[in-house]
Q: What sequence folds into this?
């Protein structure tokens, strides 16, 4: 069982806006940064959002992150077919003394 | 360009030993931690542990402590993940990932993954 909770699936049509949630606890998301990773089919994960809301270079501004307390969201605007992937949130967990991942959300573009 | 290049796919029998590798290039290898992440078939990501590539000091997730060994060799810019006795349940894709700090969830570059298949 993951320390961070995500919905197993999400979907949207091209051009729509989709939100993926991630919830945790005080030991992980309470005082630590939240990260989002995108894993396209058959590929390695890649960093999508770091430190709650920052985008690495090369990540389109259609992707945005936010965090409030022990909840966080990834918002994907202007949905495109190439956004179809698994999305994982992650944070350091003080109790475990290590990073923890959410279970992942499979995004389907209809 | 930062790159992490992992060794190729492996097919092993239960009980055998195995070491897979992750070679870093395009950056100062010994100034970043390297973590290993497991992805079992059809499942999510699990952090296994990490190594300080400057001195090969490793820290393990409780679930993996005692079952794997993580190490590094800075003279060759390579990190390793090793098993002494594989189990069928070790069948998975294993990723190495670079961490800017050793105490966050910031995996900024990833290897391409190594598929390990263990038959019983």
A:
């Amino acid at each position: 069982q993951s320390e961070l909770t995500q919905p197993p699936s999400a979907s949207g049509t091209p051009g729509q806006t989709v939100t993926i949630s991630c919830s945790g606890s005080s030991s992980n998301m309470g005082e630590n940064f939240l990260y989002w990773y995108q894993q396209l089919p058959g590929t390695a994960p890649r960093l999508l959002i770091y430190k709650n809301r920052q985008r690495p270079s090369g990540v389109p501004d259609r992707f945005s992150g936010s965090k409030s307390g022990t909840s966080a969201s990834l918002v994907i605007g202007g949905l495109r077919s190439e956004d179809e992937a698994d999305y994982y949130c992650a944070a350091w967990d003080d109790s475990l003394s290590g990073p923890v991942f959410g279970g992942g959300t499979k995004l389907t573009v209809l | 360009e930062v790159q992490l290049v992992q060794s190729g796919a492996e097919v092993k029998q239960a009980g055998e030993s195995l070491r897979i590798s992750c070679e870093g290039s395009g950056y100062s290898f010994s100034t970043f931690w390297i973590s290993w992440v497991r992805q079992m078939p059809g499942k999510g990501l699990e952090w296994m542990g990490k190594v300080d590539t400057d001195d090969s000091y490793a820290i393990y997730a409780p679930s993996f402590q005692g079952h794997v060994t993580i190490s590094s060799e800075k003279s060759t810019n390579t990190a390793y993940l090793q098993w002494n006795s594989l189990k069928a349940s070790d069948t998975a894709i294993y990723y190495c990932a670079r961490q800017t700090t050793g105490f966050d969830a910031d995996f900024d570059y990833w290897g391409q993954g190594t598929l390990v298949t263990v038959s019983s």
Q: What stands out?
A: The mean pLDDT of chain A is 96. The first strand of chain A starts at residue 9 and ends at 12.
